[in-house]
Amino acid sequence: MSPFLAGVLQLLALIAALALAYRPLGDYMARVYSSDQHLRVEKWIYKGIGANPNAEMRWPAYLRGVLAFSAVSVLFLYVLQRVQGSLPGSLGFSSIDPDQAFNTAASFVSNTNWQSYYGEQAMGHVVQTGGLAVQNFLSAAVGIAVAVALVRGFARSRTGELGNFWADMVRGVVRILLPLSVIAAIVLVACGAIQNFSGIHSVGQFMGGSQEWNGGAVASQEAIKEVGTNGGGYFNANSAHPFENPNAFANLFEIFLILLIPFALTRTFGRMVGSLRQGYAILATMATIWVGFICLMWWTEFAHHGPAFEIAGGAMEGKEARFGIGASSIFSISTTLTSTGAVDSFHSSNTGLGGGLNLLGMQLGEIAPGGTGSGLYGMLIMGVIAVFIAGLMVGRTPEYLGKKIGTREIKFAACYILITPALVLIFTAAAMALPTPGNSMTNSGAHGFSEILYAYTSGANNNGSAFAGLNADTQWFNTTIGIVMLLGRFLPMVFVLALAGSLAEQQPVPATAGTLRTEKPLFTGLLVGAILIITGLTYFPALALGPLAEGLAS
After folding, report:
1. Torsion angle defined by CA atoms of residues 117, 120, 122 and 125, in that order, rounded to the nearest 10 degrees
2. pTM over 0.70
């Protein structure tokens, strides 16, 4: 069987598995966030944190809950790393330096999971399981909660109430993320992923010296890393490491986990707004971009010219022989079109255009299908922009799901789409202009520029993957990327929740002959076009200096 055919068959199997899970999971999540009943364990949690889960919140109160909870999480994770050397189960590792501790705390709380350290050489069991793994659950639940708040904004009328953040967050962990992660961890252990609390031990001689590895609760962390679209690896090699990703089936299963919740949330959206066809339209948009990017990645990686590449069956540098070009391309596109950041190959080793596709996937806003929650609310924001463009073309006030998109709403949407590009481009320009940050680049020229651009794109879009050639463990990159991750996560949420509150206050307007039917293929095409054009106009100059220049020169 040819490598290309193997990749196609894996893609078809993945689509079939996602299709089977789409309806039951999407409907289940809609019931979770629409129910007024609380489980006993949830009541204990509410009592412990002093929250009233039945109190409805307007958008400022909901936002305060998100920001306060996240701020406490950053502080807790920072302190935990700073005192690691005094904790049991630290495996002899010292406490983390202040700049790296800040970067890691910001990374895991913002659902980015960017890592400027070697996981197996820096973090002990307590920090890995009690700090990083816990934040994998909590940050993903926060993202889903904000998405659900925006959906309620479309679904409700003549009220500014968006639900209760504490109830939404707790339910996301207890009823969705935890059960899925338990099942996923069992599957990964059965595939060969390790799950233990062993210490550091020698595994034999390697190039004249001994090689040592430490164990850990890897399978459980790998499960929530993918289910919650987090991405932080227990080991530096991430999902290319056999302890995390043992074989080809586990690799395909991990891709399935990455895409599961983001795709299924489109049905949750359709169910909660009372129109499943609206959810299908969003799903079609996400799927079109996702499949299109995979096909383009196959084209760049399989068809790269040169006798060495032809003998290898494609550009195999930086890729696992266990997975090959086909599966590695599906994984890299899925991880950069979501906010996951897990990698089973090294994106810096992709062809010039292949690396550019990974960059562009993040720069779209990671909305196809995006992260847990963040993909849905990002796509809905783009839907607001698309109907506004359609309204300009026909000369009437745009409407989306019966809500008018007026001056106030479009300002919120415009601010949302401007924040991330501003962070990426400003900090990339600063790093290239200053003398010290450039010393961290392994490569010069277009590829070196791509390393810097990729780092800030990954941080601002809360992805977490890296171009691998950049030494980001410096005070400059730890601090600036940490700031970018926090701003890129929480500033957009301000405008998402403000938009949700504005929409919830409106009274629905009836559809007329001039209303754009947002459940039709025409709207899907308009939405895809708006996403690509807006991103292209924003990032094309930067992409032309990096991956496009490298790709055209090769």
Report:
1. 130
2. yes
